[in-house]
Amino acid sequence: MKNPYPNILFFLILLFPGFLISQSNEPRLDSLFQTLRTNEAALRIFFSAMPKGGDLHHHYSGSIYAEKYIDIAKSANAWINTVTLDIKFDSSDILMNKEWKKFLTLEKELGEYNFQQILLKHFSTKDYSQSDGITSYDDFFETFDRFGSSKNKLTDGSGLLWLKQNAIQQKVSYIETMLETIPCGKLTADFNHLNDSLLIYQASNDTTKLFNLFNSLKNSILNENNKLCLKNYLKELEKEHIRLQIDDSLFTLRYQTYVLRILPPIQVLSQMIVSFEAAKEDTLLVGINMVAPEHHPIALRDYRLHMRMFQYCAKMWPNVSVSLHAGELSEGLVSPENLHFHIQEAVDIAGAKRIGHGTALAFEQDVLSLIERMKAKKTVIEINYHSNRFILGSTHKNHPLYLYHKANIPMVICTDDAGVLRTDHNGEFIQIALDFPNLTYNDFKEFAFNSINHSFIKGVEVRKKLLEKLQRDFTHFENYFLHQYQNIFEK
Ligand SMILES: [Zn+2]
Asked: 59 C-alpha vs ligand 1 centroid, how far in Å?
């Protein structure tokens, strides 16, 4: 039969000179991959060489390794609380008493090695043990409060540059990092009484009253002062991005801002409105997320209200992209009624293009119809497998990863908080390959391409360049790795 697509093939060869070679090497690489996949060390070698595209679910402060925070405190000889291990860089912030010592003094007293080990455990989940009397999810989430002002010290750019180098080393060419909340638009105490109104309207499911109140609050939040604050914030972000020369031929970084789901409702709304207004035109700030533990009592109480807020904002700013942590839950962590609707409300009400985690999929009401809708809408699932294993105790036996895949819901493999979890992007691919033997090399390759195709990056040209680079990198990998591997192990 005559090839019905001669022009397309010609175009592909022109666009990607390695297209034909790459196609022909895929089956051979998959055969090799199948022989390696039961051994973690062999998989480490394989995935360390494989291009991974982007990391789309990535928290800035949680992705940086504890050693970096310790270095910052040490080089500044910061103050450290000997009981809580809180770190302060300015003595005016602290009540001087014998609990506070200089970093180097305490290091001398405890010994450098012992002190380092204590701090590594404090700033990450390293050597976590249930017998310490803290749950894995509290150990994980509390780490973020422990960074304290060390996190601010990373704003000299060293944190972003560390992430960049770490990404390049792992063949990751794009990161969309959840950077911070935007420090503009905080409402005064005069508005506090409206918290109750929001909760009452939500309880009676009165969307008209809710949206009217959202609208009047929007006008108060986006006053001239706050708009100026926003403008300056975005200008600073861009200035820093350019000063650090983050984007180059090997790597591209974009930012998401986020809203904290455990704050009083009007503060959540204020953060959200400011975030949407900021992201509507900015090219570096490409999306909005919502963070903090989904099982927190306030997050649970206000979940439906938050989804209505997102629905309202999506109407006001239709071009802004949203990804939501949803269904990062497990049986027993919350009461059954809270397991049934988080993913579907994020998809259907909030209009999230991507869902972070989605671990509790199987507990959703009418789950098959939800899967159908996700499939129709091409909702993307961001898999954070190590994070789910640690926080929720997920295993390959109860994780819905393979269901998403079988249903053809686009999947991306992400790290969540590689610094806190002391993992990396290669490790995510490795663990999934070990635990889900039905996934082929082509599936993993597709996950890498998904991470660029479903990124929130703005600008057709930027995305096109990243896709071309990924294609070139795969062509090189498929030729080079096969050749090298056979030379070393099969001759
Ligand atoms: Zn996350």
From this structure: 6
